[in-house]
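> Could you send the Xanthine dehydrogenase family protein subunit M prediction when you get a chance?

Sure thing. Input:
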Amino acid sequence: MKTFEYARAASPSDAVRRSGPGVMYLGGGTNLVDLMRLGVAQPDHLVDVSRLPLDAIEQAGDRLRIGAAVRNSDLAADPLVRARYPMLARAVLSGASGQVRNMATVAGNLLQRTRCAYFQDVSRPCNKRRPGSGCPAIDGDHENLAVLGRSDACVATHPSDMAVALAALDAEVHVTGPGGDRIIPMPGLHRLPGDAPERDTVLEPGDLITAVELPPPPPGASAYRKVRERASFAFALVSIAAVLDVRDGAVAGCRVALGGVAHAPWRAGRAEQAIIGGPATGEAFLAAAEAELDEARPLPRNAFKVPLARNLIVRTLEELTP
Ligand SMILES: Cc1cc2nc3c(=O)[nH]c(=O)nc-3n(C[C@H](O)[C@H](O)[C@H](O)COP(=O)(O)OP(=O)(O)OC[C@H]3O[C@@H](n4cnc5c(N)ncnc54)[C@H](O)[C@@H]3O)c2cc1C
Ligand code: SF4
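Output:
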């Protein structure tokens, strides 16, 4: 591993003041330190932001503010989160292992990098790691990569489960940085790859995530479902965060976000539009899922994700129908 300097930030403004070329923030280190060991990340300086006073979960009126340094395990166990946003708790608990969740922070989880095998192997080209070097995944190992919103430059998926639930909940990401403070609505934090796959998010250099804020939970029943190759300790092949509000047999509200299918959590707006106001039936859910997946562009070895996503949407919404 390349030698680096370590410093602990005293405050969010101190962290931002220390930012600059070659500097990276350190959360729980469960992704970044792995990437440093692999030579994928090579910071000169690490600024530890995991012990900043950003570790509270607080009610703010009818909203919930979750500090960026809250550990994933504390988030999933929080009584307010479990009572008001059970889908978020389920999403977090479906990720990684107990040990990893004890270390991992909210901000670090959102900013974890793709698990594309070529990205993690510095002996191979990869447009995300080395812009302009090519994307071997397109003709190679892409079973677990994107079917929606992909580009010719990159077909990676974003691996966070938490981000999918936050996208369905219309969460807001609070950021402070050299350019000041701002609020980024989810799912807008993560980008599609386009011709700049080296940029995972819309964050600017030195931006520090300070909190995630949740609006009141949407009415209706909610669920997070994750299809993976084994029952635990595996990233999603496809996942879904869904909320369904049915009144007198008709759908009054619907939120659907998908994970494992794109470079960003995928808010299924077309499916939502097709479902809201219509009957809560399997046929209607199937037509909506097909409308959403119409724009899928699978590769030869990940085409299975399209029917998987379709069936997951239909099955989950049927389960949520009273
Ligand atoms: C074996 C294994 C299995 C896993 N399985 C899953 C899974 O199934 N689902 C899932 O969702 N995740 C999974 N994970 C990923 C895990 O959730 C992430 O490693 C973790 O959430 C990252 O959090 P961290 O605090 O350790 O981040 P770090 O590794 O410390 O940082 C990650 C990135 O975030 C940046 N960063 C950290 N804090 C801030 C901040 N406040 N502001 C701006 N930038 C910041 C860092 O600079 C770095 O770029 C798995 C991890 C492992 C090791
Ligand atoms: S899919 Fe993206 S991350 Fe994977 S090799 Fe291609 S450019 Fe790199």
